[in-house]
Amino acid sequence: MQFFISRVSYLTGISNFEHLPLMSVKDFGYNRLEHLHLKREAEKVLELGTRVANSCFVLRWCDQAKSLSELSGKNTPSRRIAIRIPREFGSAPERNRAKRIVREIFRHEKSRLRERIDLIVKIKPLANPAQLHLNYLRPQFLKLCATAGILIKDGVLHG
Fold it and tell me: What pLDDT digit, counting tens, does each position of 37-80 carry?
């Protein structure tokens, strides 16, 4: 058990877990339904969505009703994400690692995001390759979500 807690502390940067709400393992999952994978839905988010950017990310988000999710007749989850990385970012292994890190951030923080939204996250090329780390990118992502007004903190929507 101690190994698990130390591993989670290393990955998340959280050392005190007492303030976190009790959640099941399913709450931290990342399944296929949470992908925004239909081209027409991604195009709707890009067309109608709100754009917010910082030094690491460009975030486009849209309510699911606007992005045709309800019209498709599927039972969609409350939050979906698509990750885009330009080739200028680096080699294929670097792009894959960046995608894995963003998926991990989303997996852990999705409960703090507003319900029924679709997100498209574009990762900007980083000046320093050492910045491609979970402990650096997570606060950048959370600040961007707070700026966009989709971050929920203490049950209140911040932005």
Answer: 778 888 888 888 899 999 999 999 988 866 554 545 555 668 88
Long-range residue pairs from 46-51, CB within 8 A, at least 24 positions apart, any chain: 46/120, 49/118, 49/120, 50/148
**60 contact partners, CB below 8 Å, separation of at least 6:** 45, 46, 49, 50, 51, 119, 120, 122
Beta strand 50-53 pairing with 151-153: unpaired
Question: What is the sign, positive or negative, of the torsion defined by CA atoms of 16, 19, 22, 27?
Answer: negative
Across the range 83-97, mean pLDDT stands at: 92
Residue in the block written with tokens 């989709």:
150
What secondary structure letter does DSSP report for 89?
G
Q: Cα 134 from chain centroid?
A: 12
Q: Which residues neighbour 38 within 8 Å (Cβ) at sequence distance 6 or greater?
A: 72
Residue 3: other Cβ atoms inside 10 A: 7
Task: Using alpha carbons only, give the angle 138, 155, 68 rounded to the nearest 5 degrees.
Answer: 75
